Amino acid sequence: MGGPSGGGSFLHSSPKKPKSRRLVRYTYRLLASLGLFVLMSGGLVVAFFVYDASTYEENPESFDIPVSEYALTPRRGGPKNLPIAEYFVDDDDTPSMKEQKHKPKLVILGTGWGSVAMLKQLHAGEYHVTVVSPSNHFLFTPMLPSATVGTLEFRSLVEPVRKIVKQKHGHFLKATAVDVDFSEKLVEISSTGPTGEEERFYLPYDKLVVGVGSTTNPHGVKGLEYCHFLKDIADARLIRNQIIRNLETACLPTTSDEQRRRLLSFVISGGGPTGVEFAAELYDMLNEDLCKYYPRILRNEISVHVIQSRGHILNTYDEALSKYAEERFAHDEVGILTNARVKEVRPESILFTQKDEQGNTVTKELPQGFCLWSTGVSQCEFSQTIAAKLGDNQQNKHALETDSHLRLAGAPMGDVYAIGDCSTVQNNVSAHIVTFLRTLAWEKGQDPESMKITFADWQQVAKRVKSRFPQAADHLRRLDRLFEQYDQDKSGTLDFAELSELLRQIDTKLTSLPATAQRANQQGEYLAKKFNKLAHSTEGFQKNLIADGDIDEAVYKAFEYKHMGSLAYVGNAAIFDFNGMNFAGGLLAVYLWRSIYFAQSVSLRTRCLLAMDWSKRALFGRDMMNY
Amino acid sequence: MGGPSGGGSFLHSSPKKPKSRRLVRYTYRLLASLGLFVLMSGGLVVAFFVYDASTYEENPESFDIPVSEYALTPRRGGPKNLPIAEYFVDDDDTPSMKEQKHKPKLVILGTGWGSVAMLKQLHAGEYHVTVVSPSNHFLFTPMLPSATVGTLEFRSLVEPVRKIVKQKHGHFLKATAVDVDFSEKLVEISSTGPTGEEERFYLPYDKLVVGVGSTTNPHGVKGLEYCHFLKDIADARLIRNQIIRNLETACLPTTSDEQRRRLLSFVISGGGPTGVEFAAELYDMLNEDLCKYYPRILRNEISVHVIQSRGHILNTYDEALSKYAEERFAHDEVGILTNARVKEVRPESILFTQKDEQGNTVTKELPQGFCLWSTGVSQCEFSQTIAAKLGDNQQNKHALETDSHLRLAGAPMGDVYAIGDCSTVQNNVSAHIVTFLRTLAWEKGQDPESMKITFADWQQVAKRVKSRFPQAADHLRRLDRLFEQYDQDKSGTLDFAELSELLRQIDTKLTSLPATAQRANQQGEYLAKKFNKLAHSTEGFQKNLIADGDIDEAVYKAFEYKHMGSLAYVGNAAIFDFNGMNFAGGLLAVYLWRSIYFAQSVSLRTRCLLAMDWSKRALFGRDMMNY
Questions:
Q1: From CA A290, how far away is CA A286, in angstroms rounded?
Q2: With an 8 Å Cβ cutoff, are B155 and A33 in contact?
C-alpha cells in the first residue's frame, strides 16, 4: 500500500497539475483503492483462519466430575412405582447449575415454537429447568417446504435444543411424555433404553408446561399410508427422496408412457399455507432444475395438483391474496381443485368428490405418483390422555383447553400450563359472569344475581372482562351502545339475565386462536415473562401452595394474542397479509418474504446457514440426488 | 465517497502542511478507504442479488418434444427375451445429443472415482454414452469420515452425476447391472419399476466399462449386523444418528453406569485410512463439541478403540508416519489394539483375539455401543457373476483381472474394460514370454523356444516388457546386471528357460495396485484418453470388428500407475507420504490436508460447499442433532 499512496502524495505536492497528471493521479488512486480492497478482504480471511485455528481443542479435559448418588440410582415411587428422576448427572456440572439444583422444578414438554420461545425468554437461574422431547432440535417450520426440494439444507432449519437449554443451565431428556399424575406432580416419561427397549420413569415438577404440538389429521380418509406428511425434517427427507426416485424411474426404458405420467403426477391434499408453499417449491424445482438434467419429455408430462376442500386456497388469508395465489398457480400450470374432498388414497391414484356446475357431487380419480397430506392438525395421544383425566374441564376434542392465563383447565391451579398447537384458550366470557360481578356485589352488599347494573357498574365489569379476556377487547369498544342495545326494558340498568346475554353474544364473536407458529411463539414468550415475575414475587413458590388467591393474575396480565400478519410463498412470488394491509408481488416480494423469516430465524447460526443456502441455490441450483 | 475524498484534495492543495493537518488528512484517507471497502463489498452483494434474480425461471417452457417410437416401446430380444434399450427418450433432446445418437455405444457401469474421472476426460460427442449406477451421485470418498460427525455436510461431498453426464450429452439410468452377455454385447440391467417391483432389460454396448466398485469384506466374522459400515452417504447418516442416539440415551436417568459406559464405548475394527480417519473425527467431535452441550460425566466415560490385525495402524504408510499417528492417538486417549483379530461382534460387545507377551493367543472382550467395520474390500455380486462366466481367464477371487490395457481378461478383446476397486491389473510378465520373443524369432527365422538371446536381443525384449507392463519398469533398470545374473551357464546368451526364470522373478516383485481412489481416478482418465484416441483412429469402431491386430496397443500406451502419495487426518494433525517424502504435523498440516482435497474436489460447487462447511464448523461447531 505504501507505494501507490506515497506516489499519490508526491503528485499532490507538485505545484503544477496538468490534465494528464490528474489522470495519472486518479488511476493511482483507483489502483490503490482496489489494492486496499483486496488487502482488507485478505486481512479478513487471515483473521478468520486465525480464529479457526483457535477452535481446535488440543488437550482433552479429564478430571473427576462430582455426581450425586441420587442421580445415579434414583429412588422409586409414584402410583406405578417407577424410578423418580429428582436429580440429574449434570446437576453439579457448573457453579450456575449447582445453584439452581434446589430451585422449583420447571418441566417443559416439547421443543417446538412455544417451548423454545419460552426457553429463550426465561431468566437463567430462577428455575431448575428440564426439557423433555422426542426430538433434540428446534425446527423452523415455516421454511420446511423449501427443504423438501433442496432449496434449503435441512441443517439450516434446525437448531440444537441442547444449545438453547445450556444457556439456561437446564437439562434435556430425549424422551416422550405419556401421562401426568396431577396430585403427586409427576410426569410419566417413556424413553428408549440402552438396549432399545422402552423404559418409563417419573419426572417431578413444580410447574409443568405442555407444548407437545399436534399430529396430522387423517379426517377419516383411507389409504393415508400412501401419503407423505410434512411435520419434521425426517418427512422432508422422505419427500425429497421420493421425488427424485420418481424422476429417475420415469427415465427408465421399461417405464410405460402411462406409468411415467402417473409417476410425474404430484398431488397435494390441503390448500393451506403448507400445501401451497410446498406446491410452489415443487413447481420451482421442476421448472428451474429438472430440465437441466433430466430428459425434456419429463417436463411435458409433469402435473401438480392442489386439492382444497374450501372455495379458495389460503382461505384464512385476505380474499385478494388467495386470488392472487390462484392466478399465480394458473400461470404456472399448477391445477387447483377447490370444493373437493378426498375420499380415499390408493397406491396409484387419489379419489375425491367435487361439486359440478349443477351442484351434484361427482367422484373423480386422479393418478398420483406422489401425494402430500397437509389438511390440518389433530390432538396427539398424550394430550388425549391428560384431557381424559381432567374430565368435564376438557370439552374440546381438538386441543387442551386453558384459561386466559394459559393454565390447563381442570388441573390444580398454577401447576400446569399448555401452549402452542396442542392448546386452545377458552373464550367462555359468560361462564365467568359471577366472578366479574363478585366484587361489585360485595361492595354493594347485594346478591350478584339480583343486582341492577348501572352504566358505571357496566364500565367496571367491562374493564374486568377485558383484563381477563384480552381477546374480547375488540368487541367491547362502544360500551354505551352495548349497554343501550342489551338494556331491553330500557330501565337504565342491566339485570343479570341481560348482562348474561350480552356476554354470551361476545362469546360467539370470539374465534379460537389459529394453530400457528406465531401464536405458539407469543404464548411461549408470555409464559416466560410471567414465570420470570413469579420467581421474584414469591419465594420458591411456597406461597403458591398456601395462598388461595390467583397468583398468576396478581403477578401478570392475561395472555393476549396479537396477529402480526401472514405471509406465503407462491412460486417466485409472495403474498403478505399484515392486519388488512395486503401486498402481493414477484421477486422483490420473495426477497421480503425471505428477509422476514431471516430476521425471525432462531439464531445467528441459522441465519448464516440460510444466507449460504440461498447463495448455493443461485450459484449451483438445487441438488437432484437422493441418498 | 465524494465528500471525504473531495475534502482530501482540498487539504492537499493548501500550501501549508502542519502536522495536525497531516493527521486530519490521514484520518480522512482512512475513513475514505473504509468507506470504499464497504461500498465495494456492498457492490458485490448487489451484483450477487442481481445475478440471483436472474436465476428464477419465470415462464415454463412447454412444447412438443420429439421422441422416437423405439424409445417408448423397445423391442425384445437377447437370451432372456427382455426389452432391449437401444434408444432413449432423450436421444433427440438437443442437437448435440441427436448427433451422437448413432455413434458407438459406450456403457459405463458405476459412478465412483473411475467412472467419473473417465466421464470428465471423455470428449463429448464421440460416443453414445450411457451411465448405469444405483446411485445418482458421485461421492468424494476420502472425506466421508468427516461427514459422519457433522464436520462436513453430506451434500458437500457429492456431485450429481446427471450434471457430469449432461456435459457429455450422455444418458443416465439409475439401475444396477446384474449380468453381461459377451457374445450379443448386452448388459442385463435390473431396476426398480414404477410400482416398486424389479424390472430387467438389456442395454446394448459397443464398449463396456465396468467400474462397479467393491463391497465390505466380512472376513467370515459373525454378527456384522451389529456393525456400521462406511461406504456411502447413507452409511454416514446412520452413523451420525447412532452416535447422537447413544449420547442422548447415556443422559437418561434410567441408564445405569455400566450401560452408560457401554453406550459410550466406540470400537473401530480396521486400522486403515478409513478407520483411522473416522476415529480421529469421532474423537474431535467428542472432545470439541460434546462437552459444550452434554453432561460432563459423559466426557469421562467415553472410550474410542481401534482394532488392527497388523502390528501398526496405517500399515501401508511409511513406518515413521504410522508411529506418529499412534503417538497422536495415545495422546488423545484413543486405544490402539494391534495384532488383534475380531472373532465375533455381539449386540453389546466385541470379541477379539490378541497375542499376549508370551506369544499366546488370548481372547478378549470389549463392551461396545457402536462398532464400525472397515477392514478392506471384497468382490461384489456382479463382478462374481461375470468372472464366473469367463472361467479360467479370471483366477483372482478378489477382483476382475485385466491386462495392462485394462481390458477384461477373457472377454472379447476391446469390448469390455474394468477400472477401479472392482479390478486388478495382471502382472503375468512371464506368461507373455512367447509374445515378447515372437518378432525376434520371426526376424531370425527361429523357433522362440530354442532361440539364443544375446544382450542386444535382451534389450529389445526388455523394451517390449516395459511398454506392455509399465509397472515392471522399476525392476528393469540395470539390464546388464540382470543379464549376467540369469546367464547361469555364462554362455553370453540367455536361453528360453533362463529368460523365463528372469521374467518369473520380476513377476514376484510386482505387487498388485492398491484399491484406492487415486488408482481408480488414474485408470478412468487413462481410459478416457484412450477412447478419445480410438474414436479418431477408427471410423465408428468398424475396424475393431474386422482387424485382428491389437488396436488398443497401436493407439495408446499401456496403463501405468503413478503413486502420488498418501495422506491421512489423525485428529488435529495430518500425515503425508509423498513417495518417500514424509511429513507429519499439527494444524498447518491439517490446512494442507484440506487444501489438497479442496483442489482435488470434483467441481467448483463442492469446493464452495467445503469452504462453507469448514467456516460453519469454526463458527458454530458441529451439529449434535439426529433426524
A1: 5
A2: no
Residue B156 lies in a domain: no
| CB contacts, 8 Å: B242 with chain A | none
What number of residues does chain A have? 627
Mean pLDDT score of chain B: 87
CB contact under 8 A, B201 and A254: yes
Q: How many helices (H) and strands (E) does chain A have?
A: 23, 26
* Residue B566, pLDDT score: 84
Report the share of chain A in percent with pLDDT over 90: 43
**Cβ pair A260:B56 closer than 8 A:** no
pLDDT of A578 over the 90 cut:
no
**A444/A398 same-domain check:** no
User: A597 and A590 in contact (C-beta within 8 Å)?
Assistant: no
Considering only CB atoms, which chain A residues are within 8 Å of B135?
Answer: 627
Share of chain A above pLDDT 70, in %: 94
A198 shares its domain with A269: no
Task: Select from B295, B612, B627 the Cβ nearest to the Cβ of A90.
Answer: B295
Quick one: which of A98, A77, A43, A118 has its CA closest to A529? Answer: A118
Residue B355 lies in a domain: yes
- Chain A residues near residue B163 by CB distance under 8 angstroms: 292-293
Q: For the domain that residue B483 is a member of, what is the CATH number?
A: 1.10.238
Task: Examine residue A143 and state whether it is found in any structural domain, yes or no.
Answer: no
CB B244 within 8 A of CB B263: no
Of the ranges A62-71, B143-152, B243-252, the best mean pLDDT one: B243-252
**Within a domain: residue B297?**
yes
ipTM over 0.90: no
| Nearest-neighbour CA in chain A from B477: distance (Å) | 47
B229-257 residue pLDDT tens: 999 999 999 999 999 999 999 999 999 99
- Tell me whether strands A416-418 and A207-210 are parallel, antiparallel or unpaired: parallel
Per-residue pLDDT of A229-253, as tens digits, reads: 999 999 999 999 999 999 999 999 9
A530 to A161, A306, B219, B222: CA distances (angstroms): 22, 42, 63, 59
> Could you tell me which residues come within 8 angstroms of residue A549 by beta carbon, excluding any fewer than 6 positions away?
none
Nearest chain B CA: its distance from A401 CA (Å):
31
Question: Which run of H or E residues covers position A553?
Answer: helix A551-555
Are the Cβ atoms of B297 and A255 closer than 8 angstroms?
no
CB–CB of A79/A183 below 8 Å? no
Task: Assign residue A390 the CATH number of its domain.
Answer: 3.50.50.60
Distance, in Å, from the CA atom of A341 to the CA atom of A339, rounded to the nearest integer, reads 7
Q: Are residues A90 and A181 in the same domain?
A: yes
B89, B281, B594, B610: which to substitute to probe chain A, counting the most A Cβ within 10 Å? Answer: B89
Contacts of B608 (CB under 8 A, 6+ apart): A616, A619, A620
> Which letter does DSSP use for residue A314 in this model?
S
Residues of A in contact with B49 (CB under 8 A): 591
| H or E stretch at A496 | helix A496-509
Question: Residue A83 is nearest to which of B254, B284, B615, comparing CB atoms?
Answer: B254
Angle of helix A604-620 relative to helix B19-54, nearest 10 degrees?
Answer: 60
The nearest alpha carbon in chain B to A30 belongs to B36
| Residues A187, A212 share a domain | yes
**Which positions in chain A touch B158 (Cβ < 8 Å)?**
623, 625, 627
Residues contacting A26, CB < 8 A, separation 6+:
none
Q: What is the per-residue pLDDT across B405-462, written as a single tens digit (0 to 9) for each?
A: 999 999 998 899 999 999 999 988 888 888 888 878 888 888 888 888 888 888 888 8
Count of other CB atoms within 10 angstroms of residue A348: 16
> Domain span at residue A293?
224-375+564-620
Asked if residue A321 and residue A251 are part of one domain, the reply reads: yes
Query: 3-state DSSP call for residue A141?
Result: helix
What are B81's three cell numbers?
Answer: 427375451
